[in-house]
Amino acid sequence: MRKIGILGLVGVLALFLGGCGGGGTTTVVIQTLSDQPVDGDIGLTAPATFTFSQANVARNVLYGIDLGGTEFRAFLDFPLDGSNGGGVVPLSAVIVSADIEVFVNNVSFSSSVPTLLDLVPFPVTGLTSADFNSAPLLTRSPFNIFPSDINNFVRIDVTSLMVEAQRRGVRNLQLRFLLDLIPGASGLVELDDGVVGRAPLLTVEFQ
């Protein structure tokens, strides 16, 4: 469940929480939605046919493998400088925690979809074929998406990825979802990226 309601298309929260005992460090919590015109997915059909879909057109992003054998990878872009109307994470901030919430529209072809989540730079001007398999800056530990997640929000801890993004001084947290290609892995996941109140949401707590 979401921590706050979404106002319009922004969905921003900025809370200043005083430290215990009056002498603690002030903690700030911000929230920001992903940048839908930048979000999208790439499909690869062997041997080398790429298809591209933008979230502001398709209203969703896909990752995994469909029945035809096309592999999809999904890309989400979270501005950290407030450029999309969301909260700002200063470059001097020390990250305490970070997570994203995504709404799962559908899970197909598997009872469990093993998932990798990469921190990976990609152009805000549009995805290219090079982004499909570009080297990640960091990958968080694998996790699973299940059919029971359909029509629900899933919270994913991205603290390690946010810490690395902050260390590198990037102004966008850019993430790639892909199927973890372990033996027997299968499945296709559709994440909502169009309905108000269901868009991917990043929450960052920092000092």
Keywords:
207 residues, mainly beta, Jelly Rolls, globular
Outline the secondary-structure elements.
Layout: E1 14-17, E2 27-33, E3 40-45, E4 49-54, H1 55-58, E5 60-65, E6 71-79, E7 95-108, E8 113-119, E9 138-139, E10 143-145, E11 152-157, H2 159-168, E12 172-179, E13 188-192, E14 201-206
Antiparallel strand pairs: 1-2, 2-14, 3-4, 3-6, 5-6, 5-13, 6-12, 7-11, 7-13, 7-14, 8-9, 8-10, 8-12
What does this structure look like?
This protein is mainly beta. The protein has helices at 55-58, 159-168; strands at 14-17, 27-33, 40-45, 49-54, 60-65, 71-79, 95-108, 113-119, 138-139, 143-145, 152-157, 172-179, 188-192, 201-206. Strands 1, 2, 3, 4, 5, 6, 7, 8, 9, 10, 11, 12, 13 and 14 form a 14-stranded antiparallel β-sheet that branches. A hairpin with a 3-residue loop joins strand 3 (40-45) and strand 4 (49-54). Mean pLDDT is 91; it is low at 5-20.
